[in-house]
Structures are given as structure tokens and as C-alpha cells.
Amino acid sequence: RSTLFPYTTLFRSRSVAIVQARASGFVERSHGRAVGDVVAAGAPIVDIRVPEWAAAQAEYLALRSAGGDLAAAARLRLVMLGMSESLIARVERDGAPVPIATVSAPIGGAITALDIRSGMTVTQGASLATINGVSPVWLIVSLPQADADMARPGGRVSARVPAYPGETF
């Protein structure tokens, strides 16, 4: 079973998150996401098998029983490879490597780019997805010049969008 952990690099610019791979691996499962889907923060996006992490976890478990500096160094290596404390705690608790990691959405919003498919190989630093936050939402409209006198600073507008049929914003 996979575990949720921060497998992302988050760049924020008006609530935009670019989800990148922290390590190379293989896409085991995509979670049925598509461009345009709205996801909650923490929602799973993809499960990735990371052989390098599994090997480092196995080494740590082998050295952990010996204790001392080698065990501490092996644990620090897990952190330096990008594993979260919750993943390391799970490895320690279960006494077994966790070879598959779940990449989750760092923020809630709409997926605007999704660059993963089941079976793909991903490299460290590869962009997996881009998520645009849904708050605040900027609405860009075009208005014919003849109607320009209707637009005033501080004025109120109503908008309807296909994503939310029957709702007016």
C-alpha cells in the first residue's frame, strides 16, 4: 500500500502549484485525473515506484538494529533523498521498505497540466502536474467597445461558467 507524502516542489504565484518529481521512478498508477479536474489539497494524483528510495530504506532498516552513527547516517540519507518524516516513520513502524509513494496535490484547485500516464518513467525534477488554486479566481473578459461605458471601476458583474451549470457568480 502506498503512503501520502510531499513528493512535490511547490512554486506559488497567485495560487499555482507545480508538482515535480523529487526522484526518478516509474508510474505505477494514475488516479484518473485529467486536465480541468478540480482536486482538494491532499488528493492523490499518481503512485510512483522509486527504486532508489526502496533500496535506501532497506539499508536503513538493516543498520537500524546496530544503532550508532551508521544508523543515524542512514536515516539522514532518507531525509536527504526527499522522504517525509511520516514515510520514514512508516518504514520504521512496519520494518519494511515502502517502494511505492503516492504524489498528492499540495493545494486545492484545477489541474491545468498533467504530464503523467501509467507505465511512464519519470526523472528527478520532471513536471508531473500544474494546479491552479481556485481562490481567488481572476476572470478575464472581453467587452465590445460600444459597451465600454458599462464597465466602471468598482462595478459589479455576474458570470456563468460551463464548469458550474446553473450557478451564477
Provide a compact summary of the structure:
With 169 residues, the chain is α+β, with helices and mostly antiparallel strands. The chain has 3 helices and 9 strands, in the order βββββαααββββ.
Descriptive notes:
The protein is 22% helix and 25% strand. It contains three helices and nine strands, in the order βββββαααββββ. The protein is elongated, with a radius of gyration of 22 Å.
Shape: elongated
Radius of gyration: 22 Å
Major β-sheet strand ordering:
1-6-5-3-8
Name the poorly predicted regions: 1-13
Helical content stands at: 10-25%
* Estimated structural class: alpha+beta
Order of helices and strands: EEEEEHHHEEEE
How many β-strand stretches? Answer: 9
Number of contiguous helices: 3
How far is it from the N-terminal to the C-terminal residue, by CA? 41 Å
Beta-strand residue percentage = 15-25%
Mean pLDDT equals 86
How does the major sheet shape up?
5 strands, mixed
List its salient traits.
169 residues; alpha+beta; disordered N terminus
Write the layout of secondary structure elements.
Layout: E1 3-5, E2 16-20, E3 25-30, E4 38-39, E5 44-49, H1 51-64, H2 68-80, H3 85-94, E6 100-104, E7 109-114, E8 121-122, E9 127-133
Parallel strand pairs: 1-6
Antiparallel strand pairs: 2-9, 3-5, 3-8, 4-7, 5-6, 7-9
Helix pairs in contact: 1-2
